[in-house]
Amino acid sequence: MQHDEFGLIRLLTGDRQQADGMRSQGVVVGIGDDAAVTALSPGMQLVASCDTMTEGIHFLPVTMRDEDIGFKAMASNISDMAAMGAKARYALVALSLPKDADTEQIRRIYAGLYECADLFGVAVIGGDTTSTRGGIVLTVTILGEVPAGRALLRSGAKPGDAVFVTGPLGGSAAGLSYLLHRGTDAALWGELPAETAELVRAHTRPLPQAAAGELLQRTGLCRALNDISDGLASEAAEIAEASGVGLLIAEEKLPLAEGLRACAEKLAADPLEWVLYGGEDYQLLGTAAEADLAALREAFSGEGLPLHVIGRVTAAGEGVRLQRPDGTVQPLPKRGYNHFAAK
Amino acid sequence: MQHDEFGLIRLLTGDRQQADGMRSQGVVVGIGDDAAVTALSPGMQLVASCDTMTEGIHFLPVTMRDEDIGFKAMASNISDMAAMGAKARYALVALSLPKDADTEQIRRIYAGLYECADLFGVAVIGGDTTSTRGGIVLTVTILGEVPAGRALLRSGAKPGDAVFVTGPLGGSAAGLSYLLHRGTDAALWGELPAETAELVRAHTRPLPQAAAGELLQRTGLCRALNDISDGLASEAAEIAEASGVGLLIAEEKLPLAEGLRACAEKLAADPLEWVLYGGEDYQLLGTAAEADLAALREAFSGEGLPLHVIGRVTAAGEGVRLQRPDGTVQPLPKRGYNHFAAK
Asked: Which SUPFAM superfamilies does the record match to this protein (chains A, B) (predicted)?
């Protein structure tokens, strides 16, 4: 890389560090000093997390363009704020690149980061750009705020609660599967059919459920919440373990991403596998008391947001289970999804 | 890596996530949910930054043990808080490791991270551990707090100010130089002579000047402040540029790390080169009005902290200059230090 630290900052941040724009987002000192200084709103608690995306593990050149890498790294972090019922406000970006990376590639990654940050009102207040042996490593740290005592945890689910998700599932895994097949199958290249394009977009440009997360916090009706980064089965297990309950999911109530069945048929894949284990859908999975469900549905429909009830909370000993369409019930084991494993 | 996410968290954090200990540090929700929740003290602003250390760039197997890598990554971030006059409170750790890394190595890196965090009262509230092609990439994001409006920036230096540093310089570069020579010279292995051990320690286990940074903020007498991560010449240039001033540094007033001259002689190196361009000393470089200097000295001596006046602030057009012992004055160019360049 040919730029010094400040040349690089100017290249990446352009006119974004101007005082007026940053001040309107509560930024007192932006990028360019030893650290950034910001003000939280009165009565708010600070919510913080970080997520790393690494080349070869979370993405491959055939699955994600540079802009997508930036966009998705920001999106997955904003999703963690939504999963706490918090509003994402600030981000810090640590980008490590191979020594032969050019500044144009850095600019593209940052363009994607900023595109997502702008969509959700997040100000990038700090970062570090370094060289590394090996592939791209991108860590975003996200800072948000939530009214004191109102963060939505995984641990509040109670037997009898309804289990809900905020949108369609399986799309990201289907899109990834399509991209991986395309990587080795020239016949799949060319313009994407509309439905496939949506699935690919679910993988490369996922949209965190920021509005739904904040709404769940405001209503006070959500007892446990997670975002679906590792797959429905895994996230359900986390709620079950943290809350000391079981979860019974009804297969036929699961909202499938549009075009999922057609894509599965084309790729000879199992759409249910994508829905349960695919992950990276960044929808929210939560529970609420049955008695509050009508009010919750009304709040969601008032904001034009979908809400799908997919099951109910049961006693602890029962674990996480799946009710098949024929009525039989089977355990839903928590297991990981190896993104780049050969099918 | 054989552990799942939660197994790994348990391994790394041991009993550190227990509610009582975390709560005393203002942590409402620690590691284990989608994000951590913390409370800032009333009237405080949030200060945030991140720093990455990558294998092959910031360290080599011959220069740093795993525990040192963790310790130094935490230390360099706490130093950024000190450079803002802020108190470091929380950290998030993103660790990317080669696929063949074992959990014992991860544990050692975390042991170093925690050793430093504990020394300075920092709570680790979040993190992500991932695989990567290539070497270790370790990003720490540090969160601190400072009374509203009291952060110490680079931009407040005024002509006539005294320029000070908080402690000895050059030690880290000397220690690194010794370690690099030792890496290829069997005669240098074996028990380190005491003075060399201190220099090596300055490189592998630097101590951020947290107490001095907070004191400078409390006194209200510091006009501009930086930490010396990239070398005195470079940090002086940053203050000069941000403040629109020049700086004149007196060579004979520079406090040299103990044993620096002897080490330079042994390695046929120039100790002044280490002092001016070595970096990673993590001392603070600042300015204060001449009229406030007596009060500042008294405040420092009251806390048992050293303070060395090394020059004065001049007019903008004069840039950063060095006054040699013979009285001649020469420009002090800002240039990087290539840690692993052949001497």
From this structure: PurM C-terminal domain-like, PurM N-terminal domain-like
